[in-house]
């Protein structure tokens, strides 16, 4: 999927389901950069049959965090109701599985995960990387070693493509 198509088909519809104060170009840049970093907008399921789902590559713990955090719980429930997911009547793992094929749901949950962080959205590449690491805790970066160095080297490209797609 191209970044522009993701913005139009997933991100913008997702933001229409959230409070207006959550929508900003900065949020779009950061979330798109995360999706590019995590999945290159090509992999809806983590490579190697891992647990992460959707282009943002949500793991179950991240989704649970969004569903249970006081800052994101109510908007998350509102999104789930709007998209006809019967949570909490059905277990959270069914929502997690849905992230793999529902780009609007995945984009909304990604925005809400960032909303749970205490700091404001970053407006530069390095601060955006720090916020991504704080929210996603990506093993490819936090695990150290050569794999972490390679993931950190890819971030400027992911961020640059996101800036170009959002801000033109």
| Poorly predicted parts | none
Rg over CA atoms, rounded to whole Å, is 15 Å
Extended strand count: 0
Beta-strand level of the residues, as a percent range?
under 5%
Total number of helical segments?
Answer: 9
Q: What is the averaged pLDDT score?
A: 93
Structural class by sheet pairing and helices: mainly alpha
State the share of residues found in helices, binned by percent.
Answer: 55-70%
* N→C terminal distance: 18 Å
Largest sheet: none
Query: What is the count of structural domains?
Result: 1
List the helices and strands and how they pair.
Layout: H1 3-15, H2 25-39, H3 60-68, H4 73-82, H5 92-98, H6 103-115, H7 125-136, H8 139-142, H9 145-167
Can you tell me about this structure?
- By secondary structure, this protein is mostly helical.
- Helix 2 (25-39) packs across helix 9 (145-167), helix 3 (60-68) packs across helix 5 (92-98) and helix 4 (73-82) runs antiparallel to helix 6 (103-115).
- The chain has one domain.
- It starts with a helix and ends with a helix.
- The protein has helices at 3-15, 25-39, 60-68, 73-82, 92-98, 103-115, 125-136, 139-142, 145-167.
Question: Can you give keywords for this protein?
Answer:
globular, mainly alpha
């Amino acid at each position: 999927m191209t970044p522009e198509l993701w913005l139009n088909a997933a991100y913008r519809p997702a933001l229409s389901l959230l409070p207006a104060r959550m929508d900003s170009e900065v949020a779009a840049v950061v979330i798109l950069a995360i999706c590019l970093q995590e999945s290159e907008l090509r992999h809806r399921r983590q490579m190697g049959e891992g647990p992460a789902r959707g282009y943002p590559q949500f793991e179950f713990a991240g989704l649970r965090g969004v569903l249970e955090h006081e800052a994101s719980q109510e908007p998350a429930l509102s999104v789930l109701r709007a998209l006809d997911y019967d949570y909490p009547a059905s277990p959270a793992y069914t929502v997690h599985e849905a992230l793999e094929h529902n780009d609007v749901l995945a984009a909304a949950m990604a925005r809400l995960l960032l909303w749970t962080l205490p700091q404001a959205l970053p407006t530069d590449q390095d601060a955006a990387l720090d916020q991504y690491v704080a929210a996603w805790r990506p093993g490819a970066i936090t695990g150290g070693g050569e794999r972490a160095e390679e993931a950190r080297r890819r971030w400027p490209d992911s961020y640059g493509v996101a800036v170009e797609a959002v801000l033109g």
